[in-house]
Write a structure and sequence with these properties.
Blueprint (H helix, E strand, L loop, with lengths): L5 E4 L12 H10 L15 E5 H7 L3 E3 L8 H6 L12 E3 L5 H16 L4 E9 L7 E9 L6 H18 L7 E5 L10
Helix pairs in contact: 1-4
């Protein structure tokens, strides 16, 4: 079986603040997506990959930088911090709290706005333990993906990585949509 994924960055996402509804902020940009085949918006069988930083911002997961000095990336992981570049000066950003629940909440919000339930993955960055090996995006939490199946479990981090690759092309792109993911989406969160 041939599989082809189409990955589309979601532009024009405003900065989020504590208390913002991530689904409500994403919805206008998701509705305006223009796909290469000429279709627009979401169709329902996609996976929306969301950077953990915008979820953490909506949860108010900021802390003062002086309180959590971290020189090396390994220190970020140990202290459960996200990268500093996406937050105001003098602040650090912790990873999202309960990312599985956050993914489910985003999914329910998108369902209310679009009438169907796309899969949702909340990502975070992880660095290989050896310097020079780079970093990758991993799934911190997901909703609507059949993780209990071998295919679902194997693909969720791969989709997070694909999403991270597309998001990293533009520093201001905190979300992407992946179309063509078949056989792993579920109705349940």
């Amino acid at each position: 079986m041939d599989t082809m994924y189409t990955v589309l960055p979601v532009p024009s996402i405003p900065n989020l603040a504590k208390g913002d509804d991530v689904a409500a902020v994403l919805a206008p940009a998701l509705a305006a997506l223009a796909w290469p085949d000429g279709s627009r918006g979401l169709e329902g069988a996609e996976v929306v990959v969301v950077a953990g930083k915008i979820v953490a911002k909506s949860q108010g997961r900021y802390t003062r930088r002086e309180e959590v000095e971290a020189e090396r990336f390994e220190d970020f992981d140990a202290k459960n911090l996200l990268m500093f570049r996406a937050v105001p000066v003098k602040l650090a950003l912790y990873r999202p709290d309960r990312p599985e629940d956050a993914a489910a909440q985003i999914r329910r919000g998108l369902a209310a706005r679009f009438g169907f339930r796309p899969g949702v993955i909340v990502t975070g960055s992880e660095r290989e333990r050896k310097r020079g090996r780079g970093r990758r995006d991993i799934a911190l939490g997901s909703a609507g993906i059949a993780l209990a199946t071998p295919r679902g479990e194997a693909i969720v981090d791969a989709l997070a990585g694909i999403g991270g690759l597309a998001m990293n092309r533009d520093e201001d792109c905190p979300a992407v949509v992946i179309r063509g993911v078949e056989g792993i989406l579920t109705w349940e969160d």
